[in-house]
Design brief:
heterodimer; A: 135 residues; alpha/beta; Rossmann fold; five-stranded parallel beta sheet; 5 helices; globular; B: 339 residues; 3 domains; two-stranded antiparallel sheet
Amino acid sequence: MIERKIRVLIAKPGLDGHDRGAKVVARALRDAGMEVIYTGLRQTPEMISEAALQEDVDVVGLSILSGAHMALAPRILELLRANGQSHVKVFIGGIIPDEDAPALKEIGITGVYGPGASTEQIVMDIREAIAGVKA
Amino acid sequence: MSILASSVLSGDRLSLARLLTCVENDVSEGREALDVLFTYTGKAHLIGITGAPGTGKSSLVNQIALSFRKLGKKVAIVAVDPSSPFTGGAVLGDRVRMRDLSGDPGVFIRSMASRGSLGGLAQATAGVVQVFDAAGFDIILIETVGAGQSEVDIARLAHTTLVVEAPGLGDEIQAIKAGILEIADILVINKADHAGTDSTERALRSMLDLAHPVQKIFHHHGQQQTAQVEPRPTNNSESAKELWIPPILKTVAPEAIGLPELIEAIQSHAASLQKSGEWLIRERARLSAEFDLIIQQTLLDKFHAFVPASHIDEVMDSVQNRKLSPREAATAMINLGGI
């Protein structure tokens, strides 16, 4: 049997065009041995959930710098659940005010990362979240 | 019947995605489902698309898929990208170029990492393709970066192999790479609005003219992966008529320029394969290669289950100390094992 790889979808929903952070995280996850499906800019929630399903990912990473996270996050979670993918862990990175993080976690977002977050932390958190699913 | 297999046959897309993962990870659920689904394979047209990075393969795949969708065909896309040999991870970015296909229930895109496979294809690619075939996709596009032996891998797997070139990438040298020209069923010069297109076309055409048109026969000698070609007798005018000469087509993918001609060439090639009997011959070569690979893996697994690693270590010490050759060591151990 082949060692199971963690598959992560990285997407930028909405209209913001700054993708350097997303690319940095994508490379860090690759360097940590994960398979990263990078879908790029201007993804709608429908496109994200469609890709998550087709690629049977374990994790969805959203990069949101536009401030639209409180609208986008619930919609994406809803679509994932509707598609039978409620086991998928969703992480959000970007410009997220501290006061929004608890609300996001409340609705089911697994991790929230601001601009100073370390990629090592993200890798560790993903591995821990997946281990939880397997167990 | 395996639950996963029957769900896939009934059209459930989540099950399809799950099964692809099982097949990729080579777990028993995947193997069982593949055995069940195999009966339903053999209908899809498998199209391989390969070429150096930067030739615009993904954009071209996007357009080819759109064209076939307009013809009412269900299209599956398998996009293979290399895994890092150091970390085992991968960034799979081919979906970025395929936005036009999102929201279409007649399309399914799956990204795969090569996971250490030396050729451009993952070992599991053949299994993934079989799942899509059984699931009822009419066209399966397999995209891979042309590197090393991957052209051979994909030509072995696909009915129709497209090799994509782009002008200004050191074309003359590219064109001369013999493996590409022997394996291509259709040559595509993408980004044909760039300078250097004409000289690329001339270089490809002159290489094609130099080479004898040959029938592609894939020999498989256990481990050997190279494609060997046998020259057809050129004095037989009837067989010369049946020969497929790879056309050289020019495209500008983002604008869909050259796409109708490309689709026509792909369909024409499929018809030619059916007519000449090549369709079945190539399928046989593919299935035999898969069979051989499974036998090899199974025997190797049995060997390792039978012979403890410590014993192998001892033997390898002797080999490294030049007490006996690898062949002598292997023969002795195989005889011991009674395999």
